[in-house]
Structure prediction request, 378 residues.
Amino acid sequence: MKSFFAILALFFVANAPAPRDAPQTDGSASQKADAYINAEMRSEKIPGLALAVMRDGKIIKAQGYGLSNVELDVPVKPETIFQTGSVGKQFTATAILMLVEAGKLSLDDKISKYFAESPAAWKDITIRHLLTHTSGIPDYGSEENTHSKKMIDLRVDYTEDELVRRFATFRLDFPPGSKWSYSNSGYVILGVVIHKVSGKFYGDFLEEHIFHPLHMDVTHIISEENIVPNRSAGYRLVNGELKNQEWVAPKLNTTADGALYTNILDMGKWDAALTQQTLLKKSSYEQMYTPVLLTDGKTYPYGFGWSVAAVNGHPLIEHSGSWQGFHMNFARYPADKLSVVVFTNLDSEHSDPIKIAHEVAALYVPELRPPGASTPAK
Prediction:
């Protein structure tokens, strides 16, 4: 018998019927969203926030709130640049599937094929395992895995080969495919695979095959030394006091686990490409959104760079990301043809763009209100 999540995945990649009309207009929902976000920003002490709402791949609301730079008193606007954090993983997954479609690699390739000196523990790890966080390779940023803790110093510039060699010393958390555990390490390795297979640095591959074709003109790999118009500052709260983001070594801001600059306007273009399925075959998108099958026959609600869920029977695919004083969420409700992007420039411990995105979605389609959530005050 197919699992609930497998059925769910097949459902929302199919052509869904048009959603029922919401009881309020988009204009009314937009005004309610403004009031809700302003109240939430005060509550969470968020300096700046950017919101985009898309219907059927078209932006219907793009709004900035608060400050992108507190020191210079610069307001957030739709053009303001934020960092994606792990939302960048969906671009990595797309790049891998492009190479699969081109016949240059297989999802079931063992990663030892691309790393001749890989440890014996990696002999059964595949590309698919890396995409779905089921490889067993510990997350280099985790505080829970003591044997991998502090093996990567965020203030040191490592080459790709140096990072892979360090990951190779980690003891696996579990046999490949048997469990799910979020691993930034796995996606860093995928970026190195992209480089080895295509002959291009991961960031250059994205520019050539994704960003440029979609006219995502402000979306790039992070570079703090470049002049980046409309770049916002990232912040964190320390004992209730606002502080600037912590410094990270430049090369660790170029890895494939999520190190991108973008804004809500470019994310609207990305949403349109996903809606129209312009970059990949339909079968590739189906794989991307299908919950991973574990070796015990159970599934986990994660595909390739996307979490897979449902709200009141409405399919939801989404991902959040946080890095250097930024936190964001990208939520897509394919059966409702609705998507919401929320960026904040405050650390993940103190801002909640996931909740904000879900609440905003429910203002446009009330059936999307999460169970137990109260209706925001007018």
